[in-house]
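Objective 1.3, modelling of assemblies. Example input:
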Amino acid sequence: MYMTNEEWEQNNQDYLKESYEETGFTTGGYAIRKLICGGCGRVFYTTIYTKKYCHSYWCGNQANNRRQREYRQMRRQDLVCQCCGEKFTPKRADARYCSNACRQKDYRKRVTDAASAQNEHLDKCNASAK
Ligand SMILES: [Zn+2]
Ligand SMILES: [Zn+2]
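Predicted structure (tokens):
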């Protein structure tokens, strides 16, 4: 039966460990690295250059899931409402206001700000025209 390099290494951790401790190389001449799996935290030995997990499928998935969980938790932290300045826990990742009322208030404020800025500009133009 054909074995992938990963499977072979999983079955030969003892050999890799011994070689690593003695010479740092396998009999095939590959450099052995001692790594801590990014998924399960186990120490393992590998000659595969790109390897980060003792089992790239299971432990890679585990690490991915954990990253996603952390990311979601991070996103769920309290935000400060851009309108009233109150802290709130956003229900959506892109939330910026504590409530619909604040969202609408801020939206209206921005519209009137833009309008009054334009009026100011017109006033200045009128003044200099005089
Ligand atoms: Zn692992
Ligand atoms: Zn608010």
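Residues 81, 83-84, 86, 97-99, 102 surround zinc ion (ligand 2) (CB under 6 Å).
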